[in-house]
Write a structure and sequence with these properties.
Elements lengths: L3 H28 L2 H4 L7 H23 L8 H27 L1
Length: 103
């Protein structure tokens, strides 16, 4: 069974991966002029991309979890933030590799 630090690591890595996937959406929305931000709505084509992103996020989380060291004597908050940053960085590498491979 997974212990509490392992659950925290899985959750932290998964949230880091999800946050990394959401960054382009927020960047694109922030770049729009103020009057066009309200018109920037969800389109159905994003549903398929979102479903694929969740699958990639779950796979990335488990791949990253296998290599993530669980430290001892570290506060829960520090550990959770470290796991999130690890997941964010791991997914950045995966996204760059996918974009590089598609060029």
């Amino acid at each position: 069974m997974l212990s509490d630090p392992e659950y925290m690591a899985l959750l932290g890595i998964f949230l880091g991966v999800i946050f990394r996937m959401a960054v382009p959406y927020f960047r694109k929305k922030a770049a729009l002029p103020e009057d066009k931000r309200e018109a920037f709505t969800w389109q159905s084509k994003y549903t398929y991309a979102g479903a694929l992103a969740i699958i990639v996020a779950i796979a990335s989380t488990f791949i990253g979890f296998l290599a993530f060291p669980i430290p001892e004597n570290v506060s829960a908050l520090t550990f959770f933030i470290t796991a999130m940053v690890y997941g964010f960085g791991l997914n950045s590498v995966i996204i760059e590799a996918m974009q590089w491979g598609s060029d």
